[in-house]
Sequence to fold (589 residues):
Amino acid sequence: MKTCRRQTSHSVWRPTMTNNNTLITVEHLSRHYGPIQAVSSVDFELKRGEVLGFLGPNGAGKSTTMQMITGNLAPSAGRISICGVDLLDDPKTAKARIGYLPEQPPVYRDFTVDEYLDFCARINRISKDKIASAVDNAKQRCGLTEVSRRLIGNLSKGFQQRVGIAQAIIHSPAIVVLDEPTVGLDPIQIREIRSLIRELASEHGVILSTHILPEVQMTCDRVQIINKGQLVYSDDIGNLDQRMRATTLMLELRNPPAEETLNSLAGVTSCEAMGGNRFRLSHNQDQSPAEQIAEQAVKEGWGLLELHPERKTLEQVFVEITSSDKSHSSEEEAAA
Amino acid sequence: MMILTLAQRELRSLFYSPLAWAILGVTQLILAYLFLSQLQEYIRLQPQLKMMATAPGITDVVILPIYSSAAFIMMMVVPMLTMRLVSDERRNKTLSLLFSAPISMTEIILGKFVGIVAFILLMIIMMTLMPLSLATAATLDFGLLMSVILGLVLMIAAFISVGLYMSTLTIQPSVAAVSTFGILLLLWIIDWAGSKVVDENASGALTYLSMLRHFEPMGKGIFNTSDVFYYLLFIATFLILSIRRLDADRLQG
Fold:
C-alpha cells in the first residue's frame, strides 16, 4: 500500500509551527461514533494559497474530518491547530479564521439573501462599519447581487449553494472548508463554482471534499484520498498526473502494415488490434516509442492519422489505491 | 452584543412565520374577551362594593384575574414558541452555521432565550394596554400592577427555559412542544397532590415546586425575594442544561 511521503514526514514535523504559510496542522486525528471508527489517526497540513482535495467513497470519513476541523464535532483524539491556534483550547479565535460550507448549505429559508448574509457577518464578529462592504463583496464574488432581495427558500439549489459559499467567505477567513460544493448543480454552475474556488485559493487556503474525480483534477493542487477513515494517499496533483500516465499508445493508420511489424518496433512490448485500423501499443514506462513510430510511419507511408498516449483515468487510479488491500470488503462497506 | 444579534434573528424568524402573528392575535382576542366580561362583572357588583368598608378596588376585581388567565394561556402558548428553537435548526442543518462561527454555546442558548423573552414582553405590553385604558376613568393600584407583571414575566421566562431545553433534546418540534407542555402542566398542578398529603414535609416540598404557588403572592402584591429566586434558579438550571445538551451535540455527534 502506498503511504504518502508527506504523512510520514508529518509526525516528525512540529517545531516549524511558527511558519506563517501553514494554515492547518492536523495530527493523529481520530473520531469514533460508538464502536464505529469513522476517522483514525489522520495527519495532514494545509498551506496558504493551496487547494487541498479530499477524495473518498461515500462514508469514508470526509465529512467527519471536515466537521472536526471546523469545530462542529469534537475529535476523539488528536490535535488541530488553525494558524497556530489550537482549536480545542481557543475555539473562538480559531473559528474566526475558518469559513465552512457543510454538505447542506446552512441557510435560513425565510430570510432574504441580504438579511442572511448580514446575520452571518454579525455572528462572525465583523465590525459594524464593515458589514455592508463585507456583504457586498461576498455577494459579488458569488454572483448573488441580482438575487440579494429574494428569499433564500425560493432560490434554486445552485443559488442556495452559492449563498452557502458566500456565508463561508464573508469574513475573509484564512481557510475555507467546502464539503461537496458542487453536488446537485448543473454543469454551468459547476464550472462557475470551480472557477470561484480557484479564485479563492489566491487569498485563502481551501479544503474541498468531493467524490467527483475530474473536479479534483481541475481545481486542486494537492489530493488526499481517504478510505475507511484512513488517509491512504496524499500527494501533489502533478505526481498524481504522473501516476496516471499509462504505458499505452493509441495509433490509427490509413494503410497499416502487418501487426507483427508494429509489434517488432523498438520499445513496443505488445500490440493489440482494435479494429478499424486502430492499434493499442504497450511500451515500457520510461521510454515512449511515439517518436520512432511517427518517423517510421512517414517513411513507410502508413498514413498516420492518430497517435496519442493513453492516460489512466483518475477513476482507475482511485480504484487502484482504495482497493489495493481488501478490495471487496471496502466496496461492500461503502455501499452499506 | 452577540446575544442580541442572535436574539434579533430569533425574533425576526418568528415574525416571518404566520405563527407569531396568530399567537399574538388569538391571545389578545381571548384576553380582551376576559377583560370585558370582568369589567361587566365589576359594574354589576359596584352597588354592593360601595356598601363594604374595605372593598376591593378595580385593580383586584378586573385586572388581576386577567393576568392569572394570561399565565394559564401562556402555558399553552410558550411550547409553540419554543419548540422550533433548536430542533428546527438541527433538522435544517443550520446549527453548523452557529457552531462554526466564533460564538460560544452559552451565547447561542442565551440568544435564543432572550429572543423569545422579548417576544413575550411584547405580548405582555399589548395585554397591559387594556388595564391601562381604565386609568383614564379610575384610579389604578400601580404597585399591584407592577408586582403582577413582574411575577408573570418571571414565570413565563421559566416556561421558556423549559421549552428551550426540551427543544435541544429532540429533532422534532412537535415532540418538544408536547413534552414542554407536559412538564409545565405538571409543575402547575403538582401542589394539588401536595395539599392532600398529610405529611407536612412532603406537602411542603411539592408546594414549593409548584410554579403557581410562587406566582400567587406576587399577584396579591406580595413581593418575596424567595419567589424571585425560585424563578431565577429555575431559569438558570434549564439554561445550563440546554448549554450542556447543545455541547453534547459536538461531543457525541
In short: DSSP finds 13 helices and 14 strands in chain A. Residues 107-169 of chain A form one domain. Residues 1-18, 326-336 of chain A have pLDDT under 50 and may be disordered. The interface with chain B takes residues 31, 33, 64, 67, 70-74, 91-93, 95-96, 98-100, 102-104, 106-111, 115, 119-120, 122-125, 167 of chain A (CB under 8 Å).
